[in-house]
Amino acid sequence: MRKAFVTGFPIKHSRSPLIHGHWLRKYELQGSYEAIEVAPEDLADFLNGLQENDYVGGNVTIPHKEMAFALCQTREPAAEEIGAVNTLWFEGGQLRGGNTDAYGFLANLDARSPGWDRQKTALVLGAGGASRAIIYALKQRGLTDIRIANRTLTRAEELADRFGSGISAHEWTAVPELLQDATLIVNTTSLGMEGKESLSIDLSDVRRDALVTDIVYVPLETPLLKAARMVGLKTVDGLGMLLHQAVPGFEHWFGVRPEVTSELRDLILADMNGGKT
Ligand code: ATR
C-alpha cells in the first residue's frame, strides 16, 4: 500500500486528509494519507526517515515549507523560485520538492473565471510567504504589471527584486490609488481570516471588469469578497486553490491525476460548516 502524509505544526486543522481520502476512495486505490504533527526541531529526522517508514511522499505546511525546501535533495523550478516546498515525493531514490501553490492558484482562477489572464494589471495585497507563490504564478502566466502593496514596504521591495521586471512595490497607503486600474485584485494577507481583523478597502472606484480573489478560505466569503460582490464585481474564493494544489501531489504518489469536482468542494464545505475551521 502506498503511504503519504501531511505534516505541519500544528496539523489537526488540515483538510488535506479529507481531500486525498476522497480521491483514494473515488479512484478505488490502495493507499493512505495521514496527518502527522512534527515539531520544527524534528522535521529533519522525520524527512530522513520517510523511505524507511515506507512513505512515498507527502505535503508539508506551515511552518515547515521553508525548512522542507532546505532539506529535500532536488527541487522543481517552481519551488526554487518560490523558496518553499509544499509537496515531496521520491524520484530516482532522491527526495524531490515541489511547490504546487502557484499551480493551485492559477488552476482555480482558470476553472472559475476562464480568460481572467487576458488583462495584465494585478494588485497583490501582502508580501509574506503566501504572496511569493502568487507573484511567481502571475509572472509565469504572463502578467506584465504586477503591483505589490504591503504594510511593511521593505518586504514588498524584496519580492519585487526577487522576481524582477514588471513587478513594483508600493506602500499600503497607495492601495486606493492602485485599485483604480487593477484588473485583478488578490488578497494574500491574513486580514479577513476568521478571528483576524477584516481587510476593509473601498472598492467603489475599481474597474467594472476587475476580478477579486482571496487566498483565505475561512470564511469562504471573506469581507473583501463580500464587499466586491456588493459592488457587482466578479469574485473567486480561495477554496479552489486548496483543492487544486493537491492534484500534482496525488498524481506523484498514487499514479492517477485526480479531478477537482463540485462533489469534492461540497465535501470540504460540509466539513467547514460542521464548525471545524
Ligand atoms: P503568510 O506566509 O501566510 O503570507 P506572513 O508571512 O506572516 O504569512 O504574511 C502575512 C501578510 O499579511 C504580510 O503581508 C503582512 O504584512 P507585513 O509584511 O507588514 O507584516 C500582512 N498583514 C498581517 N496583518 C496585517 C495588518 N493588520 N494590516 C496589513 N497587513 C497585514
So how many helices?
12
Molecular shape: globular
Overall SS class: alpha/beta
Q: Kindly report the name of the CATH homologous superfamily of the largest domain.
A: NAD(P)-binding Rossmann-like Domain
Rg (C-alpha, Å): 19 Å
Report the major sheet: 6 strands, mixed
Question: How many structural domains?
Answer: 2
Provide the CATH architecture of the largest domain: 3-Layer(aba) Sandwich
* CATH class categorisation of the largest domain: Alpha Beta
Low-confidence region ranges: none
Please characterize this protein's 3D structure.
The protein folds into two domains: 2-99 and 246-273, Leucine Dehydrogenase, chain A, domain 1 (Rossmann fold), CATH 3.40.50; 103-238, Rossmann fold. Helix 5 packs across helix 6 (129-140) and helix 5 packs across helix 10. By secondary structure, the protein is of the alpha/beta class. The mean pLDDT is 96. It contains twelve helices and twelve strands. It starts with a strand and ends with a helix. It has a six-stranded mixed β-sheet. A six-stranded parallel β-sheet has the order 9-8-7-10-11-12, with helices on both faces. Helices cover 38% and strands 21% of the residues. It has helices at 16-26, 43-48, 65-71, 77-82, 101-112, 129-140, 153-163, 175-179, 223-230, 239-245, 247-254, 262-273; strands spanning 2-8, 31-37, 55-60, 74-75, 87-91, 94-98, 121-125, 145-150, 167-171, 184-187, 211-214, 234-236. Bound molecules: 2'-monophosphoadenosine-5'-diphosphate. The site of 2'-monophosphoadenosine-5'-diphosphate has 15 residues, from helix 6.
